[in-house]
Design a protein that fits this description.
The complex is a heterotrimer of chains A (294), B (337) and C (236). With 294 residues, chain A is mainly alpha-helical. Helix content of chain A is 72%, strand content 3%. Chain B is globular, with a radius of gyration of 21 Å. The chains are: A mainly alpha (294), B mainly alpha (337), C alpha/beta (236).
Chain lengths: 294, 337, 236
């Protein structure tokens, strides 16, 4: 049983990271209909920024906060410069642009920080927070999970109780009506993108100590995050959070108990989940929007 | 104002087209003769990418679908050739159709579930496949040699044949295969299937009411484009004689997409331009700085989509239009009598 | 007193020009209608007025030129637009729809008071205040859309075919409500409609739009009673 619980805890830890990046994807999708395939690379870039700040002498948590803020600003700029000009073009065009960002950020990170693996600072002390018999609940696991819950709660509060939250939801649901009540739609979309960028940044920075900081670190996490977003429902932030945790736990259990999968092929899990979700229940667990089908 | 006007399909038009094709062919044949072996090798690689772009164009240019799984089918073709030659001692050329067939089947298998979904969801699924492929290749070590990859012994490819050096005869092989693929693609486009696909790209519902079953055609095109990419992968195996999981990552898919975009989505000639672009730019960019190539591609993709979505061929056609005005033949109405 | 003065308005979509230079005017406190068949350019007119499409010409509202201004700037000048097909946010509750209607207002007390007023005027909405707008009937959604627009405390209310897709009895109720709103709150309205008869009954002035041009205009009573105009343009 120890193994089971240990795997579940590890799953919650990774799952929290998937949820954070999935939240970023969902927020952008909900407000603009764009699936931001470059989200992973943006998160990777933010993780590097955080690491850089750390090497310049800032404490790990200060570096994190500062990197998140910088990512917010960079995210807004990216939307204005690259995405806004094509937002009325065909879907193909927008996706291709997203892929250009993907490739560009990936190479830029390699260019600035080279491809050698870096050691990111530990954000949580490594000791076990608590032990139930032989089951060790590490502090990082609890820490990341708590941060996720705080972020989710904060987002919920923002969406339900603030004016900007109301505006963002209005833009996501009915752009025309939002315009006609005086919402500055372009501004809202820009802010939404910045918000997503900072959520992704948090995910990337927490992921760095676990998957090693190098320019390709977020490639697989992106797949997990996309699977979480799809499984949870592409327009449901709550769905993204729940799905991320579920996928994190399932992949760890599958890796631990199914020999064929081992630790190399764990990516099969999100792959299968994506396929099954999109075929049998395209709106995911909690999603609402109409999904175009052939 | 245009200097002259040519009617599409007229004998004058056909003459100019034949002239253009003939000159191109001549240039292709003469190339290895007048350049060094190394440059010939570079162009061979460029044409391999051209074939891959051709495959991607079928899907993205003709049907407007996005796929990021090209690296996977390319890898399937490459591994097929390498494994068959190395482990089962097949004749190399005989592996080409097998590679194509395997890639076709693989593409069909992906296509059946994936194409029931629209645009973005297809991208999502093919993205996952593109990322997963190297991992699968690593896992099935006995077959693929794991992360170290497998190699074809160079003795299987004689250093000289028919008076041509290895770089030269491989070049011609790729060119011939490329021409075959071009002809295949062109005929497919002009066939019923091709016309159905392009009709659907613009508006699927009217196409459906005309009796076209979208899913079947889309799956067919998806499989065919995979086949072409698989053949390109096989050619890759011929020239590089080595296949490893890291050669077929998502980055490759995006790079081929960049080539398509640069050359001009939807055009045949653009495939050549794109292939040359992605072969030569990294070569020069990497001499400046190792990761510069990816950055250049990324920026180029963005800039082109923002400023010149029709790519090189789009610009070329505009420039050509200033000199030659190509018009469609006037519709002659038969008078009722 | 002329609240809205439109001169030589040209507007369209991309290459296609829909309005070829129309003149309109609406006086304060009155209900003006723009009548026309499908494709005449009615929706385009309203979209041009709220800056949703490219326009040239002159739109003067309360002495200010609106051509060239963005939608949110125009809405901030208290012009409310109820678009075709309900114009509510289906996923929001009734209450949230009203809340978002008052988005640009900062007077919390006034907004709360107005929301109360809306619930009094539309008791059916009050019953369903926590339900999502998408679950309401067609007529209720239309009422909600109008209430949403009124939450702006508008100086001018634009309505695009309020009768569209509604059963005749419901349409009657909608127009009665519009008349009531005009009389009680002195709200100036510009209504574009296909349903000429009902629209003319609540209007003071009317304009006839045909393929992007105003072909007739005048007091509603006059248009209503002019047989030749009615037969030629209104089909009855």
């Amino acid at each position: 049983m120890t193994k089971f619980f240990q795997l579940v805890i590890a799953g919650i830890e990774m799952g929290s990271i998937y949820s954070m990046v999935a939240l970023a994807i969902v927020i952008i999708y909900a407000s603009t209909g764009l699936k931001n395939l470059a989200q992973g690379e943006m998160a990777m870039f933010s993780a590097f920024i955080s690491w850089q700040l750390y090497t310049w002498g800032l404490g790990p948590w200060l570096a994190l906060v500062l990197a998140v803020i910088i990512s917010f600003i960079l995210g807004m700029m990216l939307q204005q410069v690259v995405l806004r000009p094509v937002q009325d073009s065909s879907l193909l065009t927008v996706v291709i642009v997203t892929l250009g960002v993907f490739l560009g950020l990936s190479s830029l990170a390699g260019f600035i920080w080279d491809y050698l693996i870096k050691a990111p600072p530990a954000l949580f002390p490594e000791e076990a927070l608590v032990s139930f018999g032989s089951v060790r609940v590490g502090t990082p696991a609890v820490g990341v999970f708590v941060v996720l819950l705080a972020l989710a709660a904060g987002l919920f509060a923002m969406f339900q109780f603030t004016k900007i939250g109301l505006a963002m939801r209005a833009v996501a649901f009915n752009k025309e009506t939002a315009m006609l009540v005086g919402v500055r739609v372009n501004l809202v979309i820009m802010v939404g993108f910045g918000l997503a960028a900072s959520l992704g940044a948090a995910g990337g920075i927490f992921a760095a100590p676990k998957v090693f900081l190098e320019p390709f670190m977020m490639l697989t996490i992106l797949i997990y995050a996309l699977a979480s977003a799809a499984f949870g429902g592409l327009d449901s932030p709550l769905g993204a959070v729940i799905a991320g945790l579920i996928i994190g736990v399932v992949e760890n259990l599958a890796g631990g108990y199914i020999g064929f999968i081992g630790s190399d092929l764990k990516i099969v899990v999100p792959l299968v989940i994506i396929i099954v979700t999109l075929i049998f229940r395209p709106q995911g667990l909690l999603g609402r929007k109409y999904i175009p089908r052939v | 104002m245009a200097l002259m006007t040519v009617v599409r399909g007229s004998s004058q038009y056909r003459m100019y087209t034949a002239l253009g094709l003939g000159l191109t062919l001549l240039a292709l044949i003469l190339l290895p003769v007048v350049t060094s072996d190394f440059l010939t090798f570079q162009f061979t690689m460029a044409f391999i990418w051209t074939i891959a772009v051709l495959g991607l164009n079928m899907l993205t240019g003709w049907s407007g679908q996005i796929t990021l799984g090209l690296s996977a089918v390319f890898g399937v073709g490459a591994y097929a050739t390498v494994i068959l030659v190395r482990t089962y001692e097949w004749n190399a050329v005989a592996t080409i159709p097998v590679a194509g067939l395997l890639a076709f089947v693989f593409g069909y298998a992906i296509g059946v579930p994936a194409l029931r979904l629209a645009g973005l969801y297809l991208a999502l699924m093919t993205l996952a496949i593109g990322v997963a492929f190297p991992k699968f290749a690593t896992r099935f070590e006995e077959l693929t040699g794991g992360s170290m990859g497998i190699q074809i012994k160079s003795k299987d490819f004689p250093k000289e044949m028919w008076g041509l050096s290895r770089d030269q005869y491989l070049y011609f092989l790729v060119v011939i295969v490329g021409i075959v693929m071009f002809v295949l693609a062109r005929n497919l486009l002009k066939s019923r299937v091709g016309r159905a696909i392009t009709a659907m790209r613009d508006n699927e519902i009217p196409a459906q009411t005309m009796g076209i079953n979208p899913t079947r055609y889309k799956t067919l095109i998806f499989a065919t484009s995979s086949m072409v990419a698989g053949v390109a992968g096989s050619m890759y195996a011929f020239v590089i004689r080595f296949a490893a999981p890291n050669s077929f990552t998502l980055t490759l898919s995006i790079t081929i997409l960049a080539a398509l975009v640069v050359g001009g989505i939807g055009t045949f000639a653009g495939a050549i331009v794109g292939g040359v672009f992605i072969q030569f730019v990294p070569y020069y960019a990497e001499q400046v700085e190792k990761s510069l190539a990816g950055l250049v591609f990324g920026v180029v993709i963005i800039v082109i989509m923002l400023a010149a979505p029709l790519g090189f061929m789009g610009g070329f056609k505009k420039a050509r239009a200033r000199v030659v005005n190509v018009i469609d033949p006037p519709v002659v109405r038969e008078s009722a009598s | 007193m002329s609240l809205l003065e439109v001169k030589n308005l040209v507007a369209g979509y991309g290459q296609v020009q829909v309005l070829h230079g129309i003149d309109l005017s609406v006086n304060e406190g009155e209900v003006a209608v723009v009548l026309g068949a499908n494709g005449a350019g009615k929706t385009t007119t309203l979209r041009a007025l709220t800056g949703m499409i490219k326009t040239s010409g002159s739109i003067v509202f309360e002495g200010e030129e609106l051509v060239g201004k963005k939608t949110d700037e125009i809405v901030r000048r208290r012009i409310a637009h109820v678009p075709q097909g309900r114009g509510t946010v289906a996923q929001f509750t009734v209450e949230e729809n009203l809340e978002v209607g008052a988005f640009i207002r900062s007077d919390k007390a006034g907004v709360a008071a107005d929301m109360q007023k809306m619930f009094e005027m539309f008791p059916r909405l009050a019953e369903r205040r926590k339900q999502t707008a998408g679950s309401l009937s067609g007529g209720e959604q239309q009422m909600l859309a109008i209430a949403r627009a009124l939450m702006l405390d508008p100086r001018l209310l634009l309505l695009d075919e309020p009768s569209l897709g509604l059963a005749p009895l419901i349409i009657k109720g909608v127009f009665e409500t519009l008349e009531q709103i005009n009389k009680e709150f002195n709200t100036t309205m510009l209504v574009v409609e296909q349903n000429a008869n009902l629209a003319l009954s609540i209007a003071q002035s009317a304009f006839l739009l045909e393929t992007g041009e105003i072909v007739a205009s005048g007091p509603a009573e006059q248009i209503k009673n002019d047989d030749s105009i009615r037969k030629a343009y209104l089909g009855y």
